[in-house]
Batch of 2 targets.
Target 1
Amino acid sequence: MMDSICEKYNDVLAKIKTACGKAGRNPNEVMLVAVSKTVGVEEISKAIECGCIHFGENRVQDLLLKKAIFRDKAHFHMIGHLQTNKVRSIIGKTELIHSVDSMRLLEEIQHRAAAAGIVQDILIQVDVSGEETKFGASYEEMQEMITANEKNENVRIKGLMTMAPYTEDPEKVRWVFRKLKALQVDTRTKTFYNTNMEYTSMGMSNDFEVAVEEGADIVRVGSAIFHETH
Ligand SMILES: *Cc1c(COP(=O)(O)O)cnc(C)c1O
């Protein structure tokens, strides 16, 4: 029988708790972002009824539509690749942009946030594995962005995000999570204006337990909540 969204959501929470237990962490420190990019209003409503408040979207248009419907009942995170020409429409409409992976995008966010008179929270997406050629800043680019952001009064860097390469065996990508955590900890020891390395956003349906064991502060889980049955 197909489990309900509520059962699956609670199952993910239970697994986060178990992973925290293994790592000696407090489960309250882990934020679960339910990735709702493939589902509609009905599924999101069900998740909200079970207590979920953070949702992740990878398209600007979908995020804006859903945000307009749910307003203050839910927070929407932008987790997908963001084109510079879409920045203007999303500024101030999202809790956190997880996917800032270039200087150009960073500067556009500063420009549009300043025009809107707000401060936008972001994460830098880092390509830790070097295998994912698509998106993500290199280590050097990450450092350049953090330094450049010292002059950006309207952008607050709140941490780092990564996507591990897909694998059947999450143990194979444990090192990716460990490395992102090390980058966060390392950067936290230095002081930069407009940067506060609070979060690592890492771990998806197939690998979030390993990510939590390695110190994930935010996990982005979609199919395990909205699709998979077990
Ligand atoms: C789709 C997506 C997720 C969630 O993936 P699942 O495997 O469905 O949990 C997480 N992060 C990003 C950036 C995504 O695009």
Note: The CA atoms of residues 120 and 155 lie 5 Å apart.
Target 2
Amino acid sequence: MISSKLSIKRNILLNPGPATTTDTVKMAQVVPDICPREKEFAEMMKTMRADLVKIVHGDPERYTAVLFCGSGTLNIDVCINSLLPEGKKVLVINNGAYSTRAVEICQYYGLPHIDLRFPIDRQPDLTVVEETLKKNPDIGLVHITHHETGTGLLNPIREIGALVHQYGAVFTVDTTSSYAMVPIDIEKDNIDFCMASAQKGIMAMTGLSFVIGRKSLIEASRNYPKRSYYCNLALQYDYFEKTGEMHFTPPVQTVYAARQGLTEYFAEGEQPKWARHLRVFHAIHEGLAELGFRDVIPRELQSGLVVSVRYPDDPNWSFEKVHDYCYEHGFTIYPGKISTTNTFRLCALGAIDEEDIHDFFRVFREALHTYKIQIPARYKESY
Ligand SMILES: *Cc1c(COP(=O)(O)O)cnc(C)c1O
């Protein structure tokens, strides 16, 4: 029984996750103590794994979900270190901070890799991707980020996945900030493995992450070089299949919250939920336009979930002061992740709707007034 009788202050998180959660998800963590090795707990994780596959419309015969205790970066680590056969190399298609993270993972494991870079405000050039695949028949795994959370750009994974498969490689896609928000069809989108963590699309708590992908490829990877003990996909999968449990202690209360998050996901529905995120995204754009703020990424490439906003060229502008003012009033805004331009981000993740964005802009406008920052926002050049 979940009670939401406690009154918990509702903060609106406009950072790119962890996102605002419902009170029912918060309260789902308050449960009687349980040893996670009990059957009851394993049963709950079994249905959760099936539900996680269902979210991306995977055939349960051929796709599975493997849970890990850790934040979302763990999934990138797991996929890259576990799914690369001996003698093969990784191709990272890199147009942002999260793909750069995948490159760093290759570096840390000493894996042969190609860091194929593209500008952060453009989609990768498919001709260059294809040439690279053609010239390097030893590429065994291609990795990309679906939604580059640092900028808000969405990558064309279906088209890239088709190329990857044409050249016989495995396609791993970091969908951490799109999964359970942007509708994904794992098979039609040519994804072999996607991933997310519980605090983003399913609007639950941090500390639980999951990789979703093809059983046959996990089974094949049992003979690949073992590069990590805690973060090996086949080892964790085999343990789940044998016992229904995580190999090591799961984040018990976080799993209960994720269970509730999934229940609420299916109650809301894939399309209505996506429509709600888009509603929030449009409200963010409207609010920014009214104040004369400018964004960075071409609108047609934006994911619908993150807006990167340029700092105005105003001597009174201070992100820290505006942030602190908003924070004190229950709204969290977030710095950008673009090295060449000063930006901040407003995100449409979480259990929020357009009224919350209207409320936010009232507070944001007050902050601008308080610090005498000009409205409409001032920019030196026209970008
Ligand atoms: C949030 C996020 C991650 C995971 O980051 P953590 O800090 O490990 O939670 C990975 N990839 C993308 C695209 C993300 O948005």
Note: The chain has twelve helices and 14 strands.
